[in-house]
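Researcher: We're reviewing a set of sequences before deciding which ones to prioritize for further study. For each one, I'd like a predicted 3D structure that I can look through quickly. This is RING-type E3 ubiquitin transferase. If possible, include the structure in token form so it fits the rest of the review sheet.
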Amino acid sequence: MEPPSLASLQLTTFVLLLSLIFSFSLPMTQTDPTMDPTMPRSRSVQMPGLIPDDILPHEYTRFAKVQRVCDSVLSSGINLQFDHNRINALKPQLSFVKGDWFQDPAHAPLMPFDSSDTNSNTSALPDPLSLTTFLLTHIDPRRNFKNALNVTGALGIGISRNGTAPEMGRYLSTEFKFWPGSSDLTIIFEGVYTESDSEMVLCLVGQAMLPTRESDPKNPWQKWLKKADTRTTHSLLDQDDNIAITLRYPKSFTLTSWAVHGEVRSLNPSSGTRYFDPVKLISQLGAYSNYQFGSEDQVLTACDPYPYQDDVIKSQLEVYKGSSFCGFLDGFMSEQMLFVVPNWNCTSNDAYCKKLGPFLTNRATYQTNGGFFGVAIMMQDVRCEPRDPAVTGGSYGSARVSAVFRVVPPGVTQYTAFHRTGISGTTLSAEGVWNSSTGQLCMVGCLGSSDSCRSRICLYMPTTFSINQRSLLLGQVTSLSKEREDSHYPLSFERPSHPSELWTKFMASSVISYQYTKIKQASALLERNEPSAFGDVIAKSLLSYPRKGDELGELYRLSNLADDLSLHVPAIPDPRPSKRTKRPFVNLEIISLGSMLGRHWSATAQNGPLPIDSKPGELGPEQESTTGQEMLMNVSAELILTGEPYHNISTLYLEGLYNPVDGRMYLIGCRDVRATWQVLSGIANLEAGMDCLIEVKIEYPPTTARWLINPTAKISISSQRKEDDPLHFNITNLQTLPILYRSQREDILSRRSVEGILRVLTLSLAIACIGSQLYYITGKSTVIPYISVAMLAVQAIGYSIPLITGAEALFEKITSERSSYEPPSYNIEKSQWYWAMDYLVKILVMFAFLITLRLGQKVWKSRIRMLTRSPLEQWRVPNDRKVFLICLGVHSAGFLVALLVHLINVSRRPGHQEAYVDSQGKSHKLHDLGIQLEEYIGLVQDFFLLPQIIGNYLWKIQCKPLTKAYYIGITFVRLFPHLYDCVRAPVINPYFGEEYEFVNTSSDFFSKFGDVMIPLVSILFMVAVYVQQRWNYEKISSTVKSGQKKLVSMGSRVYERLPSMSSFEAELVASGVKEAEITGDFRKDAPSQLEEI
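Model: Here's the predicted structure for RING-type E3 ubiquitin transferase, in token form for your review sheet.
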């Protein structure tokens, strides 16, 4: 034999060290660390019990005690034949989540529960749920027994009102978590797994931190239920390692053999403080166990004769009979609830009609008084096995199905119900068969863990939908028992569908169809409300409303139109109430339109139209309208309104006609009023529990003239019942916020394009006006000093602000509004066209700013020259100091008045808030002075002629400093945004939430009143400048002062400083020559320099 190599010695040494490490570490995790007096105790003590990986060996330190406690289990076990695959499959097969546990009333309960999480009215809350979870954490492949395997596990036992306890993570420890509304105990076990002829058995011994009880058996948890600051946590928990658990699993998973039974018991003396009464556990085998179909005899007995005749499916409805039943069943029932239908047509006594079928009822279900509001049934662990006709010997396809039906009481969440696995009087295990010849799934059901199967369940999958049939699954539970105490009224349930599920769940387009039944009533409604006024006829000829487009494919065009007619938008009552109310949200989903049911987004689809049925004598899918040019279209929809005022009409099923000529929809509505038999006993004219005496009218905005007409839809809902009828309700009128049609969703981009072009044109016009002023003063140097520098400064500031802040020029208000409703998903800034447009605007703004500065420079230089000519007579030179002070005073007073009015308006609005958030998520203060000041600066720019008017008055001008093209052109440039804002459609931000209802960017400074008054005042200023320049001061004063008197004599000093034009030009030339001589720049070419001056 060759000596071992160095590598093999190193590997052997590593394995020995690894084994040594685990031999020291694992006992520490399984022994009792709380026996150490230095270890502090608390209310939630955690013991670091690390769970090793399955590949590594596990040392079982309590083997002797396990052998003693589990002796009876080991003695009855059979020899096991295992391989690694079987061992790996045991862990998920033997684990269960959220089963049920209970204790018989006795003197030693296991744990306390603090119900202080509820208010005094606990009847409105669900009862606490006692749930348990068991995890098999390790299986040792090493065999200490021929008939057993060593295993470890963890058990969580909890009580919680919301069903969240117990919580089991990857790293487990013995702990007890306790807070109001939840108690959670974790126990760590080790033991053996063995099998008998009919069962798989786990026998385990564990340890836990148990809550200590008081000696008073009537109030054992007095200390735990006290306030937190009075608890002495060091004495409330006690380590206990004398806990045993036995779990028994059936080897065969069948209709009557599917329950896991267990018991947790204390090994301590019954007189000790650590003792607790036995805890019973019950759960069902999980998804990792193979179900064995074998109850054909019971199914045939329950469903004889097949198909069982019931009243679930009416004669006019079709059910699914295809080959994909199992796939559809799994898709429909995946984590979904079946809602229980009230026994509204029961005519027996109260006790009989209040029964929830064969199920036991808890407090919350019983309080529904037979109406079963909020009660549902969860179909769990569905196993569907299709069978080929060639195998079964029949001519039709079939499938075998097993499932568990679990009652979900009110208040229990869908998530909690889906994960529960307990077995009780609220669970029904079922097995049955589906046959494609009838489309009926007939099953036999067994209540709880009983072997007695006394219920029949029939399920159908409708493929025909109508105004009073919108469910994807219909079912009924009937009694097989002839005994009176076990009989009950047939319990009906249904799986309601969202409209989108009609075409997403049924992938094959030829499977489903819609049956119209209310077209005649809708036609009568249309005739009564058909507009005949002359204005409506003109509107029809000028306006266009949503209709089919010109795309390829009929279904594609109808899908686009259905998308336009669907509404998902907030609304307000019409007329709007004086007091603020919570806005309802309108969800109108089009189900079928014309020959289409659902949606078909592929323009190249070759599928034919879906079948749309009508009763004989009724209108077909389309009929010719009164105009003879368009076609009325059949339509069905579902309307959902949110808000307390609309709870009686919160969900309406609609069917009727749509007229694309005037964009109006005339619909008949049905609402589900199924309630207890006492409520509906005296109400007539119900259709399968539906109130269909409802009329709905919807008016859509036109697709054209959007900027001139507010793009909102109007909805009117009225009841046709008499006022003394219990189902009567007052008429409801709503107006939505602005909506966007499919083609108009690009209008946000087109509007920005149009406004960008308008900015370019207005800036170009402004530049042309400034250029005309520069050209005007070229040959009239005497008028230059009388141009107001303050006026030019206002314009220069207006052009400089966009360059500094990046704001849009001239259309700042409109741009700010547009940015508030533009959704970020459009990402329009990435378009090269808009980048080029923005750069062009900035270039034009820069050019306008520079030429405005150039004009101001000429004015300034002319005044300097005038001042150097007469340095001792400065009063003769026009000065803007007084002009500036007067304008500052006027605008300061105006700003204070406007701010005061704004604050008064805000204070009168209901629902005060200090800030709001825009669509970009940015917060803005509602009363920010900076915002008000920024808006007022725009007003100062609109009144840019005010400094010139004041200067003309102070300087007593006898000339025309401004050309008409300048002051008239700039005035209209400034007024154009206001005029555009008046004619365009008002934009209400549809992306603001309810709390931003009173944040209106079109209020105060920039209201519609301002859009009218500001242009009027600006035009008055323009006329004032024209008058001042048209007539000199002498004519104006003589006109104002009736008579021949003059305000100032002709010989006064004011007129002495105004020489003739020729002498004034000579003085300017002379002053320039003198200035050149002083500076030493007078050269031989002085005449040319003088000409330039």
